[in-house]
């Protein structure tokens, strides 16, 4: 009897073990099925990602092209600007970060630290001008930056933050064709600076003043063409000098002097925000005026070939942080070309 009980007990244990083995087998089957499903899901997910990557650019573009159209001003190239200036006698007024800062009521550069509501309003009017003879230049910063150096890209991204971009777009006229303001900065910013590209761009710019009777309207320490051959192909050169900084304080005197000159004069302007307004006013009065900005410094840097901005002895540069020792320019040719001095 006792042996029979032991056998039944052992049989119960075996049955329990068999049941447990069955449960484990079923559990393993479920795990295998689960892992198989997981692997299938992972494979499918990977393939889905491939499809997404291949098609995402089209989907994203379709969803953004209407809502973002207003975020990209229409900007024609610098080469197109030169063609308009040379072939059609058009003028150019340029807006850089300094001019936009003035409109926003901020001091960004030393060239214009005195705030004036008149200056702000005039800049706004020029920016939105519909004068067919006036090209309005803004920097080609709003989309791809691939043509610029790594340093230039960093500077642009740092400057053009969402607030500043919003300020610009609120001022720019939808649908208006602007022109690349960097047309007069052909060297330092460009990724092709160690190629023949900058030289070709400078040669193209020289077409503007080829054989022309030119008057430079510049700051008293600017020294356009002093010490280099950038303007050697001009027919003649005269100069009207303004203050190195805050030139708008003498604006009316400078404008009146310009309006006394003959209509065949080509005015080349390097006078900060004042040059932007002067280009527009002279254009409206029937003259041709081109805001050339930092073109002379760019040419000096191009000749040095270092690929960066450096101080140039005797020439004012509001973008160099180092202290500059500036003395009156005593070059005899330069002195003989001055027809008015409002500095």
Secondary structure blueprint with pairings:
Elements: H1 2-64, E1 74-76, H2 78-88, E2 91-95, H3 97-104, H4 117-127, E3 134-138, H5 150-159, H6 162-171, E4 177-180, H7 197-206, E5 213-219, E6 236-242, H8 251-259, E7 266-270, H9 272-284, E8 288-291, H10 295-304, H11 332-337, E9 338-341
Helix pairs in contact: 3-4, 4-9, 8-9
Unreliable parts? none
Mean pLDDT metric: 88
Shape: elongated
Radius of gyration of CA atoms, rounded to a whole number: 34 Å
Major sheet, described briefly?
Answer: 5 strands, parallel
Instruction: Give the end-to-end Cα distance, rounded to a whole number of Å.
Output: 129 Å
The chain-level structural class is alpha/beta
- What oligomeric state best describes the polypeptide chains here? single chain
Helix and strand pattern: HEHEHHEHHEHEEHEHEHHE
Total of helices: 11
Question: How many strand segments?
Answer: 9
- Residues in helices, as a percent range: 40-55%
Strand % is 5-15%
């Amino acid at each position: 009897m006792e042996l029979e009980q032991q056998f039944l007990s052992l049989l119960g244990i075996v049955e329990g073990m068999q049941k447990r083995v069955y449960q484990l087998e079923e559990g393993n089957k479920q795990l295998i099925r689960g892992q198989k499903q997981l692997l299938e899901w992972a494979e499918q997910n990977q393939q889905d990602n491939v499809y997404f990557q291949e098609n995402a650019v089209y989907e994203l573009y379709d969803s953004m092209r209407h809502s973002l159209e207003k975020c990209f001003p229409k900007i024609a190239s610098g080469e197109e600007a030169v063609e308009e200036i040379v072939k059609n006698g058009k003028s150019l007024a340029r807006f850089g970060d300094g001019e936009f800062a003035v409109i926003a009521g901020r001091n960004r550069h030393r060239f214009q630290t005195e705030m004036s509501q008149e200056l702000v309003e005039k800049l706004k009017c020029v920016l939105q001008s519909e004068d067919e003879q006036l090209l309005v230049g803004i920097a080609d910063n709003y989309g791809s930056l691939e043509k610029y150096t790594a340093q230039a890209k960093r500077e642009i991204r740092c400057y053009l933050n969402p607030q500043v971009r919003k300020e610009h777009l609120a001022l720019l006229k939808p649908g208006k064709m602007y022109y690349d303001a960097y047309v007069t900065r052909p060297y330092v910013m460009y990724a092709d600076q160690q190629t023949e590209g900058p030289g070709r761009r400078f040669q193209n710019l020289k077409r503007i003043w080829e054989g022309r009777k030119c008057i430079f309207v510049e700051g008293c320490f600017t020294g356009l063409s002093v010490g280099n051959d950038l303007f050697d192909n001009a027919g003649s050169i005269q100069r009207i000098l303004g203050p190195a900084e805050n030139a708008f304080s003498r604006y009316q005197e400078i404008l009146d002097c310009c309006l006394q000159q003959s209509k065949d004069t080509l005015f080349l302007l390097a006078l900060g925000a004042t040059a932007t307004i002067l280009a527009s006013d002279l254009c409206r009065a029937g003259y041709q005026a081109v805001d050339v900005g930092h073109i002379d410094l760019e040419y000096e840097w191009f000749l040095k070939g270092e690929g960066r901005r450096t101080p140039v002895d005797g020439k004012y540069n509001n973008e160099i942080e180092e202290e500059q020792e500036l003395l009156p320019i005593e070059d005899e040719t330069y002195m003989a070309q001055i027809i008015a001095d409002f500095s």
